[in-house]
């Protein structure tokens, strides 16, 4: 019996809706915990309920929204415990990616790190906190992009948007954190270029845990 497979029509509209809502969360246009009523958001974007639902379902899979039956859809609202778990997972993934990118594609990874750091400097000069956060995200993605292990990169992708949203929502309002962050990223580049794995891992760990502490403090402040 011949195999019959239905060819799905590309859902370009729902993909565009997904990207726009994701960008709004990652760039802090939508706040943590904010309600996203399908009718209201769909009307504002000029789309019907079906592409909106498809987009929200995919965003839920990315950890950016929470769909609560009979209540609605909300932007994810991380707790201090969520932040701790994300930080621990990042440490495992990024630490392994650092080792692998140094072994498999050091030149490509270093180029990515330097480009992201240059973008961070431009954002600092312009006083653009959101652009700084985007460049910060690109910096850490460089380790995963050139680690040579698609499964490791995919695991990181499962939390990348949540981490990016934390940066934009909680770090951007605290511009004084940028000085420390910028120096830490510069030190990471130096250690990577020198092949100093343990020194790089030590500062990466300190950087991720310090960021998590900032996020926890911000979340608790909002809760008061």
């Amino acid at each position: 019996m011949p195999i019959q497979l239905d060819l799905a029509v590309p859902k370009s509209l729902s993909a565009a809706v997904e990207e726009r809502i994701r960008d709004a969360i990652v760039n802090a246009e939508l706040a943590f915990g904010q309600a996203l009523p399908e009718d209201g958001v769909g009307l504002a974007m000029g789309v019907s309920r079906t592409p909106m639902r498809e987009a929200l379902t995919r965003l839920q899979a990315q950890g950016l929204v929470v769909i609560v039956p009979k209540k609605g859809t909300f932007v994810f609202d991380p707790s201090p415990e969520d932040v701790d778990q994300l930080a621990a997972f990042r440490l495992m993934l990024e630490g392994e990616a650092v080792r692998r990118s140094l072994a498999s594609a050091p030149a490509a990874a270093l180029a990515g790190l330097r480009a992201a750091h240059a973008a961070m400097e431009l954002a600092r000069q312009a006083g653009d906190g959101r652009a700084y956060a985007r460049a910060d995200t690109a910096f850490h993605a460089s380790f995963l992009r050139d680690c040579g292990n698609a499964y490791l990169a995919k695991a990181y992708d499962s939390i990348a948007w949540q981490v990016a949203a934390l940066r934009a929502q909680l770090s951007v309002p605290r511009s004084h954190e940028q000085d420390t962050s910028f120096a830490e990223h510069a030190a990471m580049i130096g250690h990577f270029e020198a092949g100093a794995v343990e020194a790089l891992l030590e500062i990466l760990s300190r950087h991720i845990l310090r960021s998590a502490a900032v996020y926890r403090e911000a979340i608790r402040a909002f809760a008061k």
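The chain has nine helices and two strands. Strands lie at 65-68, 72-75.
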